[in-house]
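Researcher: We're teaching a course module on how sequence relates to structure. For the next exercise, students receive a sequence and then see the predicted structure as tokens, so they can try to spot secondary structure elements on their own. Here is the exercise chain.
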Amino acid sequence: MPSAIPKSLARTARLMPLLILLSACGNDTENEAIRQYAQAAAPADPELAEIYERSCRSCHARSQSGAPLTGDHAHWAKLLAEKSMDTLVDNTVDGYGGMPPMGHCMDCDREEFKALIQFMAQAPEDNSQEPDA
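Model: And here is the predicted structure for the students to work with:
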């Protein structure tokens, strides 16, 4: 009785686990670059940089926190498209998920939160200058 599975299909089936593993590794370099950028980034404006350091960096520079990483433009663009800047600022003020109300910055105002979100949402190559207000 001939084999029910053609040789080419059997070969493909044997290679499938390897292909799946390789496809999962595709974004590692990009993700690592974003993680490294997030850990080193700071706004150009000294006042915003101070706020970012004391209130944002602890979560937005660590992928383990679950917060969108600073410089992960694709993630932030998706959030901005799904919600809006106003909603993200409201989430910061009210607290959202693991982020406490006012995002650990009780003396910040909405414009500072907006500027910080704009900074964090920019791709690394776009953060060489102050974000638009």
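Model: If you want an answer key for the exercise: Confidence is low (pLDDT under 50) at residues 18-26, 129-133. Residues 31-126 form a domain with the Cytochrome Bc1 Complex; Chain D, domain 2 fold (CATH 1.10.760.10).
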